[in-house]
Design goal:
It is a single chain. The chain has about 325 residues and is an alpha/beta fold. It has a single domain, classed as Metallo-beta-lactamase, Chain A (4-Layer Sandwich). Helix content is about 25%, strand content about 20%. The protein is built from eight helices and 14 strands. The strands form two sheets. An eight-stranded mixed β-sheet has the order 1-2-3-4-5-6-7-8. A six-stranded mixed β-sheet has the order 9-10-11-12-13-14. Helix 5 packs antiparallel against helix 6. The chain starts with a strand and ends with a helix.
């Protein structure tokens, strides 16, 4: 795998703000006089025509097709311009499409910096969620005022949406969009590139960790395990490599294990509730089971939120 580190251009794109401060990565150091730090884009080359851009929010995929470029997810506010500058170094072809895996600000905010002619495709629930940009469960609420899309007169919102499945293009340029059910949100799209055997999962599989369950945007603790299992069953013969929301690439075996991890978490919390334990007691005592080596220790606030969501969904 070839990695290139470059500096994305810093463009004054106005006061782009959205309540995603809890998602944003720490600043990479300020400049003398209080100038903003440069926005660094790191590039993983997975195939000759397929790249993953890291930094500034969720992982961005760049698929160079015969007649244009498809981009999956566009990071935090202010990162659209660095993405565009980096893509110019990778290919001279025009960007024709953005696909957003879900509604969160660290995956959709850069949309507003792309040309207005670029098509934007999402799941139908994500299309509705992006218009509202509701607060994310368990994170700091956005400040009062218009959303990033309202600030930009609707630029960057979804122009096409799908319910269960959608196919774009054909042959080496084919892209298959799948929806398998609620999980991280109620609109998590799986973006499959069948000719390359690569799928972008977004934050329903952000990495080997306890997922962020955004109940405010339709996420579900009781359904995410089964949704992940459905994705594995449907995609295991079509893809080898999974682009996660925020971590390194994973395999189908990793996805199968992650589905079981989420089912085990659900079972443990539901058993504790049935035994009469409080959500606070469970959150303070739960630890990652020994068989899940390499999984990140859960953030206390996220663990507390996920336990409470299980309690709320379990009758």
């Amino acid at each position: 795998m070839k990695r290139i580190v470059v500096l994305g251009a810093i463009v004054a794109a106005g006061a782009l703000s959205i309540g995603v401060s809890a998602y944003q990565q720490p600043a990479r150091g300020g400049q003398p006089g209080g100038a903003p730090a440069p926005r660094v884009v790191e590039v993983d080359k997975l195939k000759d025509n397929f790249f993953v851009l890291r930094g500034g929010g969720g992982n961005t995929a760049v698929f160079v097709m015969t007649d244009g470029i498809t981009v999956v997810d566009t990071k935090n506010p202010g990162w659209g311009a660095p993405i565009l500058e980096k893509i110019k170094e990778l290919s001279t072809k025009p960007i024709v499409r953005i696909i957003n895996t879900h509604t969160h600000g660290d995956h959709v905010s850069g949309n507003v910096e792309f040309p207005a002619t670029v098509d934007v495709v999402t799941h139908e629930n994500t299309a509705a969620n992006m218009k509202k940009m509701a607060p994310v469960t368990g994170l700091q609420a956005p400040p009062p005022g218009p959303t990033i899309f309202e600030q930009n007169q609707g630029r960057g919102l979804s122009k096409q949406s799908f319910k269960d499945r959608m196919t774009i293009g054909k042959g080496p340029d084919q892209i298959d969009l799948h929806y398998f059910g609620r999980g991280h949100t109620n609109g998590d799209a799986w973006v499959l590139f069948p000719a390359l055997r690569i799928v972008h999962a977004g934050d329903i599989f952000s990495g080997k960790n306890l997922p962020l369950l955004d109940a405010n945007n339709g996420g579900s603790a009781t359904e995410i395990g089964n949704t992940l299992s459905k994705a594995h069953s449907a995609l295991s013969k079509s893809a080898d490599t999974i682009i996660t929301g925020h971590s390194t690439q994973m395999t189908m075996s990793d996805l199968q294990q992650y589905a079981q991890f989420n089912r085990d978490f659900l079972s443990a919390v539901q058993t504790a509730k049935k035994a009469g334990r409080t959500a606070d007691e469970v959150a303070k005592s739960w630890t990652i089971p020994a068989q899940y080596t390499g999984y990140a220790a859960p953030q206390p606030a996220r663990l507390q939120s996920n336990v409470q969501i299980v309690y709320a969904e379990t009758k």
